TrEMBL record:
Protein name per its UniProtKB record: Chemotaxis protein CheY
The keyword Transmembrane is annotated on this UniProt entry: no
UniProt keywords, alphabetically: Phosphoprotein, Two-component regulatory system
Residues that bear 4-aspartylphosphate: D52
InterPro entries to which the protein is assigned, alphabetical: CheY-like_superfamily, Sig_transdc_resp-reg_receiver
Residue ranges of domain Response regulatory in the record: 3-119
Pfam families cross-referenced by the UniProt entry: Response_reg (PF00072)
Superkingdom of origin organism: Bacteria
UniProt-listed PANTHER family: HYBRID SIGNAL TRANSDUCTION HISTIDINE KINASE J
The keyword Cytoplasm appears for this protein: no
Organism the protein comes from: Methylobacterium indicum
Length: 125
């Protein structure tokens, strides 16, 4: 079972995503701001991180850079979750260290496909 760190500050989104991901067989660890996300990535060793980019305390851009610059977390794939869906935003999140990009509102089936691709496994049934 893959472990997903979900770093999201909006309750409706983390509740929706965590429940659906758990039903698909994933273990879900929650963090509600960027600083907590970086700390939980270091302590819980997730297989993948779903990272909101607009977070309190430490934004997702800074959290992604911190995670990718740390040898202990650099190899963990990060999928950016963001309401920023403008031209060039995908490139900005990739430059910040994210491995993929998923615009909000979340398309759950597409997100599952992205998670599977990042993990090198088919999406959970």
């Amino acid at each position: 079972m893959a472990k997903i760190l979900l770093v999201e500050d909006h309750e409706e989104i983390w509740d929706f995503l965590s429940r659906r991901l758990k039903r698909r067989g994933y273990e879900v660890v929650l963090a509600h701001d960027g600083e907590e996300g970086v700390m939980k990535a270091r302590t819980s060793r997730p297989d993948i991180i779903l990272l909101d980019m607009n977070l309190p305390v430490l934004d997702g851009w800074s959290a992604a850079r911190a995670l990718k610059s740390d040898a202990e977390t650099a190899r963990i794939p990060i999928i950016a979750l963001t309401a920023h869906a403008m031209s060039g935003d995908r490139e900005k999140v990739i430059q910040a260290g994210c491995d993929d990009y998923h615009p909000k509102p979340v398309d759950f089936s597409k997100l599952l496909t992205q998670i599977g691709a990042a993990l090198g496994t088919p999406a959970a049934p």
